[in-house]
Design brief:
The chain has 14 helices and 19 strands. Bound molecules: flavin-adenine dinucleotide. Flavin-adenine dinucleotide binds next to helix 1 and helix 14.
């Protein structure tokens, strides 16, 4: 059989690659191998049982704002969407502000508003060539706002200082308001929503991954299969359960940092480049409540550094299917990386106990819930969350990607391309990988 195709990883990119190859080459033999016992990867999730029924938690926020017509058609054919207008909020020093904070300063004390506005209006940090994210922030927002909002948030979300990040990922992710918008937002809470997506969608039935469930049902996935070594000369994949599989064509969606270590014997410069590619991991604390009014919006950001979670989202606000009747739910995200390890953040305490207690205590202090409202809780770690855009990232990424391409491995998806891809982009990345194959009958 000349057309045996193996796909590594059953996240949205792997499933998309398998689906598109099958559609184009119905005679091909396609097998997907997944390390865990479930499909969806980052777009997947898990149930947590409670006395009132099961809660579903996606792996972190997950809402679709895909604008590509092809992706929308696939997602919405698989499951009709619930449409939300995204209105996130911010928590800062016991104050709730609309998002983004820079043009919604209204609830701040007057002295603080003056400090922010003075620095924004007399901003002396603007310059032509901005060499890092910190300079970018100072140039956009002046000193006071930068130091009290995004510099703190960057430490929590990216696990590094803003000066250690490039600006290549920023795009429209941070809003740069006009002076009129800043002044209006400082004097009034009647401001328009300036979030970069006007609509966020979630499946009406099922959970986030239901957007590509019909595709998954058409392909062959084998679970609990962790790839541990690849011999590209003999075209054999070895798994950690001591089994092996031959292939003619190989598509991988697993992180290129892992691929560099397990593909043949990579030269030192490839290993070195892979070691210098960094990603954040997330510790997630998921809580279910017996009341339906705990969650007030889809998600919120937390700037205060004594609160370790950077962002909290509500699965039950996304869809009532995610919680039993009359209940609601929240999930807090605590980020860490090799550059800021979790044991340093929590001072070598047991992560599960410490972060569950930390999150619950802070939610109570913030007025979000009472202890007796909580009817289920869960703690887990997701090893790969976001690629960190350190200054040398792009050059290191090129070295590893070239090595894999030379070995005739097609690498795709968020960690296969090693980029800041949303789920729709990861889906298209899988489709592009499929299009690179040329099979003969
Ligand atoms: C915090 C956060 C929030 C996000 N929110 C949104 C959002 O709101 N909207 C949106 O569109 N996108 C969102 N995304 C992005 C989205 O999650 C990704 O684009 C997408 O899920 C990536 O899919 P993938 O298939 O490329 O990778 P993954 O989902 O990571 O899939 C890779 C698969 O490979 C498997 N694997 C790993 N190693 C091995 C191995 N050795 N052997 C076999 N299998 C292996 C993994 O278990 C996994 O199933 C978010 C991401 C994060 C981190």
């Amino acid at each position: 059989m000349e057309n045996k195709i193996i796909i590594l990883g059953a996240g949205i990119a792997g499933i998309s690659a398998a689906y598109h190859i099958q559609k184009k080459y119905p005679y091909a033999q396609i097998k997907v191998f997944e390390k865990t016992n479930d499909w969806g990867g980052l777009c997947g999730g898990f149930y947590v049982a409670s006395s009132l029924g099961d809660f579903w938690f996606d792996h972190m926020v997950h809402l679709s704002f895909a604008d590509n017509a092809y992706v929308q058609n696939i997602f919405h054919t698989s499951s009709k969407p619930i449409r939300h207008i995204p209105i996130p909020t911010n928590y800062y020093n016991n104050i709730w502000l609309k998002h983004p904070a820079q043009n919604n300063l209204y609830p701040l004390p007057i002295e603080e508003k003056i400090a922010v506005l003075k620095d924004m209006i007399n901003n002396k940090n603007k310059k032509e060539n901005l060499s890092n994210f910190e300079e970018w922030l100072y140039a956009q927002y002046g000193n006071y706002f930068t130091e009290n909002f995004p510099l703190k948030y960057t430490r929590k979300y990216w696990s590094v200082e803003a000066k250690d990040l490039s600006t290549s990922w920023v795009s429209n992710r941070l809003y740069t308001p006009s002076l009129e918008e800043i002044l209006q937002g400082a004097m009034s809470d009647q401001t328009p929503n300036t979030y970069y997506a006007q609509e966020m969608r979630y499946p009406e039935s099922g959970h986030y991954r239901s957007f590509f469930q019909t595709l998954k049902e058409q392909i062959d996935i084998t679970y609990n299969k962790e790839v541990s070594m690849i011999d590209t000369q003999k075209k054999i994949i070895f798994f950690s359960d001591n089994t092996q599989e031959s292939y003619n064509h190989l598509i991988s969606t697993i992180p290129i940092t892992i691929m560099a270590k397990i593909t043949d014997k990579a030269p030192k410069e490839v290993i070195y480049a892979a070691q210098n590619l960094k990603a954040t991991s997330t510790a997630i604390v998921s809580l279910g409540f017996k009341k339906n009014d705990i969650a007030k919006n889809l998600w919120f950001y937390i700037y205060d550094e004594d609160k370790l979670f950077a962002r909290v989202y509500s699965p039950s606000f996304k869809s009532p299917n995610n919680a039993p009747n009359g209940c609601s739910s929240l999930q807090a995200e605590i980020y860490f990386s090799d550059l800021k390890p979790l044991n340093v953040i929590i001072n070598n305490q047991d992560p599960k106990t410490y972060l569950l207690n930390h999150t619950i205590d802070n939610f109570i202090q913030m007025g979000i819930c009472k202890k007796e409202d909580i009817i289920c809780q869960d703690f887990r770690i997701l090893p790969y969350a976001n690629v960190i855009f350190t200054h040398n990232m792009e050059s290191n990424r090129s070295i590893v990607l070239k090595y894999l391409a030379d070995k005739k491995i097609i690498s795709c998806g968020r960690f296969g391309e090693w980029d800041y891809l949303w789920s729709d982009q990861s889906f298209l990345s899988g489709k592009n990988a499929a299009e690179k194959l040329e099979l003969k009958k």
